[in-house]
Write a structure and sequence with these properties.
single chain; alpha/beta; 7-stranded mixed beta sheet; about 35% helix; binds 5-O-phosphono-beta-D-ribofuranosylamine; GART; Formyl_transf_N_sf
Length: about 190
């Protein structure tokens, strides 16, 4: 089965996914890495890994609908089993979400429904939470609000900063959880 991965930045989740396809832990092929930013470092990684890449700059589009329509025109012919948001930092329109219903997933760095949106690590620290983590969820029109598929937790340690906590969430949760969940979704048609 084919995956299309959407990025905007460093692509640490993309790297974890590609590594998992290479090691056989994730029996799928990353058919395309799509970015809305030409300077996304994840593109360099994809190119070095021999994975097709494409940049669709949101600045080149008058509105979200037109940007999303072009992304869809690129994605749909590939008929991916899953479209994977991995550090993708654009809010998607309803037509895009509807067109990919049941195939569109995201990873969010919090224990949803806690802390949808940005600055999740700082907010968890501010709240004095004992735990934090990441959630893989179906994408719906509600930002970071779709049904949660799986979560991973870490303890918040004394002296944690948003950076140290974010790094722990990424290293101990995200890079393991996402490939695992994607493989599960490919093998069992989970509730979509
Ligand atoms: C990570 O915090 C991830 O949870 C969120 O985007 C951030 C950067 O991810 N989805 P990446 O390094 O671009 O994969």
């Amino acid at each position: 089965p084919r995956l299309v991965v959407l990025i905007s930045g460093r692509g640490r989740n993309l790297q974890a996914i590609v590594d998992a396809t290479r090691s056989g832990r994730l029996r799928a092929e990353v058919a395309l890495v799509l970015s809305n930013r030409s300077d996304a470092a994840g593109l360099d990684y994809a190119r070095a890994a021999g994975i097709p890449t494409q940049v669709i700059r949101h600045q080149d589009h008058a509105d979200r609908a037109s940007f999303d329509a072009q992304m869809l025109a690129v994605i749909e012919p590939l008929q991916p089993a899953l479209v994977v948001l991995a550090g993708f930092m654009r809010i998607l329109t309803l037509p895009f979400i509807r067109a990919l219903q049941g195939r569109l997933v995201n990873i969010h760095p919090s224990l949803l429904p806690l802390y949808p949106g940005l600055n999740t690590h700082a907010r968890a620290l501010q709240a004095g939470d004992a735990e934090h983590g990441a959630s893989v969820h179906w994408v719906t029109e509600e930002l970071d609000g779709g049904p949660v598929i799986a979560q991973g937790r870490v303890r918040i340690e004394p002296g944690d900063t948003p950076e140290t906590l974010g790094q722990r969430v990424l290293e101990q949760v995200e890079v393991r959880l996402y490939p695992e969940v994607l493989q599960q979704l490919l093998t069992e048609p989970a509730a979509r």
